[in-house]
C-alpha cells in the first residue's frame, strides 16, 4: 500500500508459541488471585489420589477391624482411613466451586485489562487512516468480540492454563501411587500412554481451530446477516421490500457454507487420530501391565492392588479432553493474537505511535520543530499545492489543491458528489495528513502545532456527526468538554439552534436523555439531531474555537428552520472563520466567498454575484437548483 512501507510485513512477524503466550498472560491475574489459585488447584489435583489411597486402606482394614471389634488397633486404623477419605472428599467438594469462581475472576480480570489496552490502542492514532484499513478493523472486530463476550477469550485461556495444574498434579500423584506401590516401570508406561492420548486430543483440536480460523470470512458473513436481521437499521426496508425470505435463504446458505467444511475438518481432525491413538494406547497399556504384572504381581497386597487399580484408572481418565482447559487455551489466544496484530498495524502507520492527547509526544514533523501555542487565524488558512489520496483508495482526491480561506469570513465550498469537500474538512482537522503540499494558518504549517491544540481551535459539524446517548445538554456541551458546567452557555447555544422547540415542553428540558431505550429518553429525527449538532458548534465557538466547519449543516432542516438558523448564525459567528459545505445554494449564496471544487482542484471562486456573472459551473448548478425549487414552490429563487 502506498506510503506505508513495511505494513504488509506485520502479519509475518514471528509470534511465540501460543502456550508461552498464555504463560506470559498469567501474571495479569494479579498476585493475590494467583497466590490463591495455585494452592487451590494443586490441592484439587492431589485430593482424588489421597481419597483413593485412604479408601484402599479403609477397604483393606474392614475384615480385621470387624474381627477385632471397636477399640482395637485395626478398628482405629479403619476410623483414621475413613476420616482421611471423608476429609479429602469434603475438601474437594468445597474447593471445586471456589476454583471455578477464582478462575472466572481471573478470566474477567485479564479480559478487562486487555480490553482497556485494546481501547487505548484504538484511541492512540491521531488520525483516521489506520482505523479505516479493513485489516486493522478486522483484527479489532475479532479481538473486541471475544474480549467482550469472554467466550473463548485470553482470560479464559489463562484460567484454563491454571486449571491445567489440577490435571497435571492429579496425573503426577496417580503415577507416584502406581510407582510407589507397584512398579516405576508401570508408572512410566502409564504416563507415556496418557501423554500419547493427550497429544492426539490436542493435535486434533489444533487442526480444528486452524480450520475455524480459515473460515473467518464465512463467519463474518453470518455475523453480518444476523445483525441485518436483528438490528433496527435495515428493519424498515426488509419489511417494505419483502426481503425476509431472501434473507433467511441467505442465512441458511451462509450457515451451510460454514458448517460443511467445519464438519469435514472435525472428522479429519478427530476420527482417525482417535482410532489410532485408542488402539496404540490400549496395546501399550495391556503390554505394560501384563509384563510387569507377571513379574511383580506377587509383591502386591490387597491395599496395594486397590490403590494401583484406582490410580491407574484415574491416570488413564486423564488422557481425555479437558473441557475446562483445552478449547480455552487453544482458541482463547485468537483474540490476544488479534489484539497484538491490531496494535502492530496501528503502530506501523505514520503517526500511529503518537499520543493524541495533551502532554503526549508530538511528531517530529517535516514542518520543523513543534510550535506549542496555536494562534487564532488573523489573515487566512491556506491550502498550498495539497496532494492527497486515501490509503488503499482509488487514486488522488486532491492533486495540487490551492485554496485560501480568509480569516473572519464565511467561505462556502461546493462541488459534485465525491469532489472532495468532506476530505478537505478531514485534512483541516488533521484526521489525515496531506501526501504533499501544506496547510498553513497565517503562514505556519498546521503540522507544526500540537494536534490537540490545533483541534481545539476548530468547531466542526461533520456530515455524519455523532449522536451521543446522553442528555441534550451534554450533547451540546461536548463542543467544549472542559466547560460542561457552563449551563448558561449550553442553554444559549441550544436556543440559537432551536433545540428547545425540538424537545418540546417535555419535563427535564435539556436534561432529557437522547436515546429511546433510556427511561424518559427522547427519540429525535435527523433534522432535530442536526440542531443539537449545530448547538454543539455554537457552544465550542463561545469557548474559544474560532474556526467553524459545517459539513452539510442544514441538509435535514426544513426551509424555515434553515433560514432562521442562518439569520441568527451569521450574527453569532461574526468574526469567526467559517467553512461551509453545502449542496443547498440558498445557503451557499450568503457566503462571503464561494469555492467550486472539481477534479481535485479549485476551479472557480468569488462571491455569488461574481460567479453568476462568470456563468460557469457555479452559475449552472445554481440555476438548475433554483429552477427545480421554483417548479415545486412557484418561487423562482
Ligand atoms: N475513507 C475513505 N477511503 C477511501 N476513499 C474515500 C474515503 N472517503 C472518501 N473517499 C473517496 O474520496 C473521494 C472524495 O470523497 P468526499 O467524501 O470527500 O466527497 P464529497 O465531495 O464530500 O462528496 P459528497 O458531496 O457526496 O459528500 C470520493 O471518491 C470517495 O469515494
Automatic annotation (TrEMBL):
The protein's location, in the record's own words, is: Cell membrane
**Which positions, given as ranges, span the membrane?**
175-197, 269-292
Gene3D superfamilies per UniProt: ABC transporter type 1, transmembrane domain, P-loop containing nucleotide triphosphate hydrolases
Whether Nucleotide-binding counts among this entry's keywords is yes
Stretch list, region Disordered: 354-373
Basic and acidic residues bias (residue ranges): 354-364
Which keywords label this protein? ATP-binding, Membrane, Nucleotide-binding, Transmembrane, Transmembrane helix
Give the molecular function GO annotations: ATP binding; ATP hydrolysis activity; ATPase-coupled lipid transmembrane transporter activity
SMART domains attached to this UniProt entry: AAA
* Domain ABC transporter positions: 381-624
Q: How is this protein annotated for GO cellular component?
A: plasma membrane
**Topology term for the membrane:** Multi-pass membrane protein
Origin, by domain of life?
Answer: Bacteria
Q: Give the matching CDD domains.
A: ABCC_MRP_Like
Q: Which Pfam families match?
A: ABC_tran (PF00005)
Name under which the protein is recorded = ABC transporter ATP-binding protein
Amino acid at each position: 500500500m502506498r506510503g506505508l512501507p513495511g505494513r504488509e510485513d506485520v502479519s509475518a512477524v514471528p509470534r511465540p508459541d501460543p502456550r508461552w503466550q498464555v504463560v506470559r498472560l498469567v501474571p495479569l491475574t494479579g498476585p493475590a488471585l494467583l497466590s490463591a489459585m495455585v494452592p487451590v488447584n494443586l490441592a484439587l489435583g492431589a485430593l482424588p489420589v489421597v481419597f483413593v489411597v485412604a479408601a484402599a486402606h479403609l477397604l483393606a482394614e474392614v475384615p480385621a477391624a470387624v474381627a477385632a471389634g471397636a477399640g482395637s488397633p485395626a478398628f482405629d486404623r479403619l476410623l483414621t482411613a475413613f476420616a482421611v477419605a471423608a476429609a479429602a472428599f469434603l475438601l474437594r467438594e468445597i474447593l471445586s466451586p471456589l476454583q471455578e469462581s477464582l478462575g472466572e475472576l481471573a478470566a474477567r480480570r485479564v479480559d478487562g485489562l486487555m480490553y482497556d489496552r485494546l481501547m487505548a490502542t484504538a484511541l492512540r492514532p491521531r488520525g483516521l487512516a489506520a482505523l479505516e484499513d479493513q485489516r486493522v478493523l478486522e483484527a479489532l472486530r475479532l479481538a473486541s468480540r471475544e474480549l467482550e463476550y469472554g467466550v473463548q477469550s485470553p482470560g479464559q485461556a489463562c484460567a484454563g492454563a491454571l486449571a491445567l495444574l489440577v490435571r497435571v498434579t492429579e496425573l503426577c500423584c496417580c503415577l507416584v501411587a502406581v510407582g510407589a506401590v507397584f512398579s516405576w516401570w508401570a508408572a512410566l508406561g502409564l504416563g507415556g500412554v496418557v501423554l500419547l492420548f493427550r497429544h492426539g486430543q490436542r493435535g486434533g483440536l489444533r487442526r480444528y481451530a486452524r480450520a475455524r480460523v480459515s473460515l473467518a470470512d464465512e463467519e463474518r458473513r453470518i455475523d453480518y446477516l444476523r445483525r441485518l436481521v436483528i438490528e433496527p437499521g435495515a428493519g424498515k426496508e426488509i419489511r417494505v421490500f419483502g426481503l425476509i425470505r431472501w434473507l433467511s435463504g441467505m442465512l441458511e446458505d451462509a450457515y451451510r457454507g460454514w458448517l460443511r467444511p467445519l464438519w469435514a475438518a472435525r472428522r479429519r481432525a478427530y476420527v482417525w487420530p482417535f482410532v489410532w491413538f485408542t488402539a496404540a494406547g490400549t496395546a501399550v497399556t495391556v503390554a505394560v501391565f501384563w509384563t510387569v504384572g507377571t513379574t511383580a504381581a506377587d509383591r502386591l497386597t490387597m491395599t496395594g492392588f486397590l490403590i494401583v487399580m484406582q490410580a491407574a484408572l484415574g491416570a488413564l481418565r486423564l488422557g481425555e479432553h479437558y473441557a475446562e482447559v483445552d478449547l480455552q487455551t487453544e482458541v482463547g489466544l485468537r483474540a490476544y493474537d488479534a489484539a497484538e496484530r491490531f496494535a502492530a498495524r496501528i503502530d506501523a502507520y505514520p503517526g500511529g505511535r503518537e499520543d493524541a492527547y495533551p502532554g503526549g509526544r508530538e511528531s517530529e514533523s517535516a514542518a520543523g520543530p513543534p510550535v506549542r501555542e496555536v494562534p487564532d487565524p488573523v489573515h487566512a488558512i491556506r491550502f498550498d499545492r495539497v496532494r492527497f489520496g486515501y490509503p488503499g483508495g482509488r487514486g488522488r482526491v486532491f492533486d495540487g489543491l490551492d485554496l485560501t480561506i480568509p480569516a473572519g469570513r464565511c467561505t462556502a465550498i461546493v462541488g459534485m458528489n465525491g469532489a472532495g469537500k468532506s476530505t478537505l474538512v478531514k485534512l483541516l482537522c488533521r484526521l489525515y495528513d496531506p501526501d504533499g503540499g501544506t496547510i498553513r494558518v497565517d503562514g505556519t504549517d498546521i503540522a507544526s502545532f500540537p494536534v490537540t491544540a490545533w483541534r481545539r481551535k476548530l468547531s466542526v459539524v461533520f456530515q455524519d456527526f455523532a449522536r451521543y446517548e446522553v442528555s441534550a445538554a451534554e450533547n451540546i456541551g461536548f463542543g467544549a468538554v472542559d466547560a460542561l458546567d457552563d449551563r448558561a452557555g449550553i442553554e444559549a447555544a441550544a436556543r440559537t439552534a432551536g433545540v428547545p422547540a425540538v424537545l418540546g415542553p417535555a419535563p427535564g428540558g435539556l436534561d432529557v436523555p437522547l436515546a429511546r431505550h433510556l427511561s424518559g429518553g427522547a427519540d429525535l429525527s435527523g433534522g432535530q439531531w442536526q440542531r443539537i449538532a449545530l448547538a454543539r458548534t455554537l457552544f465550542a465557538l463561545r469557548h474559544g474555537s474560532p474556526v467553524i466547519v459545517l459539513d452539510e449543516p442544514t441538509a435535514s432542516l426544513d426551509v424555515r428552520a434553515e433560514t432562521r438558523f442562518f439569520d441568527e448564525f451569521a450574527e453569532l459567528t461574526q468574526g469567526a472563520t467559517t467553512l461551509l459545505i453545502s449542496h443547498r445554494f440558498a445557503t451557499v449564496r450568503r457566503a462571503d466567498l464561494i469555492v467550486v471544487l472539481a477534479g481535485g482542484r479549485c476551479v472557480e471562486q468569488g462571491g455569488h454575484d461574481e460567479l453568476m456573472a462568470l456563468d460557469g459551473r457555479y452559475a449552472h448548478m445554481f440555476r438548475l437548483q433554483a429552477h427545480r425549487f421554483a417548479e415545486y414552490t412557484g418561487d423562482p429563487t
